[in-house]
Amino acid sequence: MRNVTKDNITEVFAAYFGEDTDPRTRQVLIALARHIHDFAREVNLSHDEWRKGLEFLEWAGRITTPERNEFVLLSDVLGLSSLVDMMHSTPEATSSSVLGPFHVSNPPALEIGGDMKRDFEGEVLLVEGTVRDTSGKPIPRAMIDIWQTAPNGMYSSQDPDQDIHSFHGLMTCDWEGRYAFTTVRPVSYTVPDDGPVGEILRAAGRHPWRPSHLHYIVSAPGHRQLVTEVFPDDDPYLDQDTVFGVRDDLVMTYVPQPAGSFPEGFALSGKVEGSYSRVDFDLVLAPLHEA
Amino acid sequence: MRNVTKDNITEVFAAYFGEDTDPRTRQVLIALARHIHDFAREVNLSHDEWRKGLEFLEWAGRITTPERNEFVLLSDVLGLSSLVDMMHSTPEATSSSVLGPFHVSNPPALEIGGDMKRDFEGEVLLVEGTVRDTSGKPIPRAMIDIWQTAPNGMYSSQDPDQDIHSFHGLMTCDWEGRYAFTTVRPVSYTVPDDGPVGEILRAAGRHPWRPSHLHYIVSAPGHRQLVTEVFPDDDPYLDQDTVFGVRDDLVMTYVPQPAGSFPEGFALSGKVEGSYSRVDFDLVLAPLHEA
């Protein structure tokens, strides 16, 4: 090992593993080291650049809290989060998309047809759909965890003026897999750019905007949990999402509905007199084990 | 961008750069993203493994302080720090080696022939040598920053019982480039292994030991600063340094000297009556600009 050189250090690293180590851990760590070494060699990484990289990680560490995870954001803007999503999505199922850092662990229950916007003002949105399996069969009683920004562009955990449960809801679909709720249209917003990730975005000539979206986590026994988002097809940032989260099958038309047409059977029935928009978003879950 | 796939995301990332971005930043960030993407694709990184990796970085962030930098340690045990050192060392100069996290920014002055061990007990070591340029000419008045562990295996910044300046010294060589000081023999020690780096070492079946060494930073106008270490040739961890810091030309014999032979001209002259060891370690600095 004292004859380690810049050309053999990856082999030296690999040879240093103990014999009874977990094969998968070994595979992942050796591949990680090899790609890090190859990166450093390819760009002839300088000491200053190496130090700057470490300082970025230290900075990310200092500002990371349960409410703001700069490491997840770094993974997001580098495209790694989306890549891992895409590698594990099932072509027959709805595409998955980034979880993001704003999910809360105890969302409040939301009844079918319930209202998630509470007292917030904005374009009323009626969201509904059915959760199905890959054969098209509805999945009864699927669980949908939904969250989004308030009209000010902030999630509850970012905004001291919002209750932590604001714009979060956990819904159990009916026996035919149907869900429905009302909300206000979420808005395009910027990811936090006052940390190291912001520096990277500026260095790359990129903006911190994400197109407007609703987040979903959909779960049902016997099916793979789906983490995804739905985007309106008229958002200006659809083709420049800074976290690479948009997929074609997640882009939906928010169809304008005339005033006076708000349907019966919702918590807001009788209260929405003006126009609103309606979005149908069906979700297809992959089986937990491939057939 | 809404047609991003696991196969084209690296190209999408690269194409997203603004046109007036710094070419070097662009090169480094695109190469970094490509290697991260290739790593994830090659090992088919799972969501759980991705999350575990992020949790490791978060953990590193939580325990990193000015005195303990877990990110530097991570770079060290992955071999990245040594790789960057080796990529930028000059073959004609003394090999560089890892800086490590235990350097202090204001080392106390140490006269030529001075004693760095103060009141600590241990095997007395007389260290001397000459700083030269690559043509063999002594470099007058070179500056040497030296630090090491106490006999208990701890650096001053790790040990509440040591003064922060304990076993640190800054020496100006004489006009013939010579330096000399006394100390006690540094000991093999373990890098901190109670954090995420310790988990990685255990998963790899590796121990956290480093062979005993003295750290040097050598500076002189017109020459490249050299960060290096010197190791005794009888240390049991020479071929298993957990941070890959050993180089052949940094391994020296600590030559035992008989009792009563301690030379004149040192702060400890007349005080060392027993045996001691002597190590000659000459240092060769590369020119700041290649000829």
TrEMBL record, chains A, B:
Mention one GO molecular function: dioxygenase activity
Tell me which UniProt keywords the record has, alphabetically: Dioxygenase, Iron, Metal-binding, Oxidoreductase
Q: Which cofactor does it need?
A: Fe(3+)
Keyword Metal-binding assigned: yes
Identify its protein family. Answer: Belongs to the intradiol ring-cleavage dioxygenase family.
Membrane-traversing stretches: none
Protein's UniProt keywords contain Oxidoreductase: yes
Give the Intradiol ring-cleavage dioxygenases domain ranges.
127-155
Mind telling me what this protein is named? Dioxygenase
- Cited PANTHER family: DIOXYGENASE, PUTATIVE (AFU_ORTHOLOGUE AFUA_2G02910)-RELATED (PTHR33711), INTRADIOL RING-CLEAVAGE DIOXYGENASES DOMAIN-CONTAINING PROTEIN-RELATED (PTHR33711:SF7)
Q: Which residues form the signal peptide?
A: none
Q: Supply the source organism's classification.
A: Bacteria, Pseudomonadati, Pseudomonadota, Alphaproteobacteria, Rhodobacterales
- Cross-referenced InterPro entries: Catechol_dOase_N (IPR007535), Intradiol_dOase_C (IPR000627), Intradiol_dOase_core (IPR015889), Intradiol_RC_Dioxygenase (IPR050770)
**Top-level taxon in the UniProt lineage:** Bacteria
Pfam families per the UniProt record, alphabetical: Dioxygenase_C (PF00775), Dioxygenase_N (PF04444)
